Amino acid sequence: MKKEEAKLKAFYSAMFNAFGPQGWWPGETPFEVIIGAILTQNTSWSNVEKAIANLKKEKLLTPKRLHALKAGELAAHIRPAGYFNVKAKRLKNFLDRLFEKHGGNLSRLLKKDAPALREELLSINGIGPETADSIVLYAANHPEFVVDAYTKRIFSRHKLVKIDAGYEEVKSLFTENLGPDAQVFNEYHALIVRTGKYFCKNREPLCGSCPLKAYL
DNA sequence: TGCCAGGCCGGGT
DNA sequence: ACCCGGCATGGC
């Protein structure tokens, strides 16, 4: 077993032992996963929850209902998520594609194989690599590893990736050593977020009782 | 009170 | 192929 592989598995065990299964994605349906994935771009999940709660309260959280809204109306509902004007546009870009190319049928879109789905998502303005991979993994259950700010922060501090490594470079560390396993990728990313939120803030050290502290 | 959060785009170099 | 400013609310 390669050195990286052993480390990645040890990290996983340490986080899993500390926190247990995370049960991701925090959303009830594939559609809700997609909306949440776009809304959480550079935004804390607690703010996204408020926006999604608004949509649910108004019975708007369906493809048809959201598609029928104008961007400005949608923006008003998702205000708490921040960047509400750009995000309203991005949500509409996704919905426009869903209705124009797939008849508004989400399961038809999600039925595509992983590479084709990822490629189509990336072709939508407002969906980048992390959002696309989140949707492929957590809405379609295909094994794409999700790399986020916490992943780069934690694994560069542990010197498993360079500080300035790009998205694909970081992603390959995981896919080449663990993959492809949707359940493992699912739990691993969720554990990284859980760990990062409490023990790996941007400014510094704050490691505290982080389960990965012993490996620093 | 500032700083930060589960990114991404568009324009400039 | 990178680099950077812009986008915005809510929590600590």
Care to describe what's here?
The chain has helices spanning 3-19, 30-39, 45-57, 63-68, 71-77, 84-102, 106-110, 114-122, 129-138, 149-157, 167-178, 182-199. It has 216 residues and is mainly alpha-helical. It has 2 domains: 3-23 and 146-215, Endonuclease Iii, domain 2 (Orthogonal Bundle), CATH 1.10.1670; 30-138, Hypothetical protein, domain 2 (Endonuclease III, domain 1), CATH 1.10.340.30. Helix 1 crosses helix 12, helix 2 (30-39) crosses helix 3 and helix 8 (114-122) packs antiparallel against helix 9 (129-138). The longest helix has 19 residues, at 84-102. The chain starts with a helix and ends in a 17-residue tail after the last helix. The model has no long low-confidence stretch (mean pLDDT 96). The chain binds a DNA duplex (13 and 12 nucleotides) through helix 2, helix 3, helix 6, helix 9 and helix 10.
Key terms for this structure?
Endonuclease Iii, domain 2; 2 domains; DNA-binding; mainly alpha; 216 residues; Endonuclease III, domain 1
